[in-house]
Design a protein that fits this description.
about 250 residues; about 15% strand; alpha/beta; 8 strands; TIM Barrel; binds zinc ion
Amino acid sequence: MKFFDAHNHLQDFASEGELADALAAASAAGVEGMLCCGTGPDDWGRVLELAGRYPQITPCFGLHPWYTPEEGWRQKLEEFVRRTPCCVGEIGLDGTRDSGDQEKNFLLQLEIAGRFDKPAVIHCVRSWGRMLELLKAARLRSFMLHGYGGAPELVKDFAALGGYFSFGGEIADPAREKLREALAAVPVDRLLFETEAPEPGGPLWRAGPAGVAEVVAAASGLLGCPEEELAGISYSNGLNFIEGFK
Ligand SMILES: [Zn+2]
């Protein structure tokens, strides 16, 4: 089976040794593609370096909505995006965090994604209506809502705009009924799975990109789709998401 981890932060591993072990485990499990997402100017160089070293990594450069940027971040982002096959992310809106320039910074980065024709990797928490408005106006060719947590009813609206939807191992929790409904509502050609690794001390599926196999196994049961078939579909979707932008 082949797997694609649609969202992780490999730059956050505490040591080179831990990172190498996690990537070896991922390769052994069949994880042949992944998106490694930067969160700000301080980690973009590291993300670029990892993508240069490991061909299975597609780098993503963006300013995460939790962070306040240093002066000149936008010019720096443009340099990374211009010179590298990449996605723009992790960018987004987070209604649980109060940061004054969040929407302004998100819009600036949507503009960069559009101008350089890159897919966007998007974080959205409690801002779904506004997110839909902004993405309608941005008219990107492609974007992914990572760790999708919006209403099942909104899936068709985001899908109509070119959206992909990525889910983590939370879908294994029977209490997450809405999340499971959303999973079932996603068109099969827009479905992705992720680990958001690493999360030290977190659930096993978040320890490294190998955990995406566990997420696919959980989704397989929920969707009534054989594991091997779902792995293949989501792997192809991952390649389609980044195709044409390399
Ligand atoms: Zn993330």
